[in-house]
Predict the structure.
Amino acid sequence: MAMMPAGAGSGPPPPLVPLCVTAWTQVSAVGTGSVALLQALRERRSGLVANDLTHEPLATWIGRVPGLEQAGNALPVTLADLDSRNNRLAWLGLRTDGFMEQAHAAIRRYGAERVALVVGTSTSSIGATEEAYRGLLPDGGFPPRLAAPALHMPHSLGVFVQRALDLHGPCVTVATACSSSANAFAYAERLVRLGLCDAAVVAGVDSLCDSVLFGFNSLGLVSTRPCRPFDAARDGISLGEAAGFALLERDGIGPWLLGHGESSDAHHMSAPHPQGEGARRAIGRALAGGGIPAARIDYINLHGTASRKNDEVEAAVVAELFPAGICASSTKGWTGHTLGAAGMLEAVITCLALENDLAPGTLNCDTPDGPHGGSILRQNVERPLHLALSHSFGFGGSNCVLLFGRQRP
């Protein structure tokens, strides 16, 4: 079923169950797997390329995962009826970093009915629907290989991953635009806390398609050059695609999800609240959920899309809530803005930062903008990192902030 996460009120957050991130992986424009991602971060090597995806020209740069169209990335026969770019991307992610094997080990520990699946996606398999309409049969029907109804619904990703892993527990799709897969972490924590499952697979997958690229372009949000988060000359986003997965358990070895904060300010369909009220509320609830004061945060992975208003508001909120000199950066110059997968991808980056004591800088930020631009980390910094936040702020004012710690509380 496709569901929206519960809205966060103004009262204190309920007691949170810290969960260990015992496995994680990612596939993005910078490479396949955590090692490739970490290497790209260290080398400050962007994955953005000139757009070569859309069926009509669109001058922009994208974070495209290469090779998804190749036969080697085709789905197995048992999943072939759900073949789409989005599901191929998910399949590639599942088979990376041994994630599928670790998920199956969790299923053996707890039972297939006791492992939840929570996926975050904003476009799901809309690219397959585009392709189906471009190839309509003379009778108006979809081509046989694109005829499965599950391909064309918002829960397509959930159906696919559930079948791929042979899971039989709760299966939920969270669709809150660009905060989708961050909210999926919060939803998964609630399922464990309420005793509805013993562990959870959390996923974030979104793929590029014409609707995404031309849709954002119609809003005047797409740059014609690689995105420049927090730069004075920034003029829009670079869109990307990614798949990421995490396994959450009550015990284990790995970084810990210590808190999460959600809010829905509903200020505007595509613009943030001018004073960042929703972002501020989400940050406060994440810190309160983990019992962590703002001064103890070592690194913040910012939403930082390189749109004019998002960066301006986010930088002001960070400058207001956190001490001067905090390591805060946007990593979208590496991967592009991966929409519903951004929360998951940047959670993986945050976990890698904690594990490797590496705070990545902000690519393409040459001249920091405004009075708060100086608070944005431009170059990579290596220093001990123990606690970190990951920000995800979506269309419609849907905000989610995740708090990760290097050690168990």
Notes: The first helix runs from residue 34 to 43.
